[in-house]
Amino acid sequence: MPPKDLSITPPSSPMLMARQAPEPDDIPEPAVPAAVLAEVNTPHASSSLPEGFGAHEALLQGFCQHLQDRLHTFMLEEHKGIMQTLDATLVALRKWVETVGQQNEHSAYQLSDALFKLQEQGILLMENPYKVTIEAVTPEGYPVKIDVVKRTTEELIMAMPALSGWLAAQGYTMPSPALA
Fold it and tell me: Dihedral (C-alpha) 154, 157, 158, 160: value to the nearest 10 degrees?
């Protein structure tokens, strides 16, 4: 007897679910008259069916049932393996997303902290508009450039004699400026 439902379903549908007990028929089968049963069970010479035609029907049904069970088991195992692979992939993907999210969250905390400190403390701007570069030669004969940077001209003018005196005391020499 062919199955009642012949629809094609995707692999992860109820076809792969555990087998359920068959539903009872809501209409009972009618009783077969005894004369019909006697006629069917008596061998006839004029019958086109060979003798012992239904003898192996139980064996064939058992084989088909066994084949269906094996196919069902195979499909469940294949589905299980695919689902395990998919689960492992999704776990790795979830860990990666969490890691990326934590990095961004940490960056957001750092930015928030920096902006809060900026709001509280402000920005310290240092301007050193006055700069002098002194070229000197060490006692060993190596040339050296020294930058002196001060905020005001008064500070620069006061720092120059002190630096020149220290360089002379240490043995540095200053080449004379070239006139252009």
Answer: 150
Tokens 């960056």, residue located: 107
d(CA 177, CA 135): 10
Beta bridge partners of 136: 144
pLDDT tens by residue, 50-103: 677 677 788 888 899 999 999 999 999 999 989 999 999 999 999 998 888 777
Round to whole Å and give the CA distance between 31 and 142: 125
Find the DSSP H helices in 12-137. Answer: 34-41, 57-121
First to last CA, the chain: 116
Q: What is the pLDDT of residues 6-60, one digit of tens each?
A: 555 455 555 545 555 556 667 777 888 888 888 777 766 555 666 776 777 888 8
Confidence (pTM):
0.29
- Looking only at Cα atoms, what is the longest distance across the chain? 143
- The ranges assigned to domains in the chain are 57-119, 130-170
